[in-house]
Amino acid sequence: MTKLRLAFMGTPAFSVPALEAIVHSGYEVEAVYTQPPRPANRGKKETPSPVHLAAEKLGIPVRHPTSLKSEDEWRAFADLRLDAAVVVAYGLILPKPILDAPRLGCLNIHASLLPRWRGAAPIQRAILAGDDETGISIMQMDEGLDTGAVLLEEPVPIYHRTTAQDLHDDLSALGARLIVEALDSFSIGTIHPVPQSENGVTYAEKLRKEEGRLDWGRPAAELDRQIRAFTPWPGCFFEFRGERIKVLQAIPIAPAGKSTAGTLLDKDGTVACGFGGLKLIRMQRPGRGPVSGEEFVSGMRLEPGVALL
Asked: Per-residue pLDDT tens for 205-223?
C-alpha cells in the first residue's frame, strides 16, 4: 500500500491525537500548519498551540501563517506536492487554491454526524440540544461550511451526565482512528464519498461567554444540559450579592411542591427552577476554590427561601 504525502492542519488539543495517529501509521507528514503562537496564562507569554508542540516533538516542520489568502502561501502549499491534507479544527478558512492543491483534496475531521451541527461548536450544541448521539464525520472539504461529501462516520452516544469535556475526549480519539482508516482506504482506492443530505441541516454557532448565564426560570433539565455543554468553557454562572458564582456541576431533580424560580430550597444547595429543581453539586466564588453546594450555602450563611438572584 502506497503511503500518502500529507500536510496536517490543526490547532487545539482536540487535533493532536489525529496527528500522532497519522504519523505512527507511517504516513509522511511534510508540514504541519497551525495557528500562530498566542499570549496565554497570567504572564501573557507567547505560547505555541498544542499541535505546534506535538509537531515539534515528532520532528515535523511547522508553519503558522496568520492567513492563507496570499498567492505566496498558495505557492508554498502547492510546492509540498501533497496527495492530501488533513484538517482538524485548524481555525483558518481554506481558500480554493489551498483546497485544490493536494492531488486527493483536503479531508476534514468534524465532530458531528453531518449534516447535523455544521459549524464551530458541534460538541457543545449537541449536548445543549439534548441529542442522544453525535459522532465523527470524515469529510471531503469543499468551499462551503462543512458541506462536503462524507467519507466515513461513526456515532457516539451522549449519556445523561456527559459533559463537553467528556465528549471532546471521546471524539478526539475516534477522529484519530477514523482518519487513519480513511487514509488507508484512499491509498487503495476503496473509499467512496457520499453527498450530504439536504435534510436535517443544523448550524453550531460559535460559543459566547454570556451564554453561560443561568436563568432559573427555565426548566432544570435545560439548565443541566447548559452546564454540561459549557464545561469546561465558557462555564456557567449566576449573579448573587454582587458576585459571579460559577456552577461547575449540578443535577436536575423533581422537588416536592412549587416555589418561585431562583429560590433556595434546602441547605444542600437545591434551587427551584421554572420546572423542577437543580441541585448544585460543585460551585466556585470569585478568587476561591471549588466547593460543594452545601459548603456554598453554609459559607454564605444562606437559609432556605432566599432568592439566588
From this structure: 999 999 999 999 999 999 9
Q: Which pLDDT score is estimated for 40?
A: 76
> Pick from 207, 117, 215, 227: which is nearest to 161 by CA?
227
Question: Whole-angstrom Cα distance, residue 9 to residue 92?
Answer: 9
Say how many Å lie between the first and final Cα of the chain, rounded: 64
Residues 245-277: b if buried by 16+ CB within 10 A, e if exposed: bbbbbbbbeebeeebebbbbbeeebbbbbeebb
Residue 170 backbone dihedrals phi, psi, to 5 degrees? -65, -45
Q: How far is Cα 180 from Cα 3, in angstroms, rounded to an integer?
A: 11
Model confidence, pTM: 0.95
The per-type count for the chain, helices as H runs and strands as E runs, is 8, 16
Check whether the bond before 157 is cis (ω within 30° of 0).
no
Backbone angles phi, psi at 131, to 5 degrees: -60, 145
Edge-to-edge strands, sheet with 62-63: 62-63, 28-33, 5-10, 84-88, 106-110, 133-140, 150-157
Question: Which residue, among 147, 34, 296, has the nearest Cα to 308 in the 3D structure?
Answer: 296
Give the residue ranges of DSSP H helices in 32-135.
50-58, 71-78, 96-100, 122-128
Cell 433556595, residue located: 264
Asked if pLDDT for residue 256 goes beyond 70, the answer is no
Q: What is the pLDDT of residues 174-200, one digit of tens each?
A: 999 999 999 999 888 898 899 999 999
The pLDDT of residue 39 is 85
Q: d(Cα 116, Cα 134) in Å, to the nearest integer?
A: 9
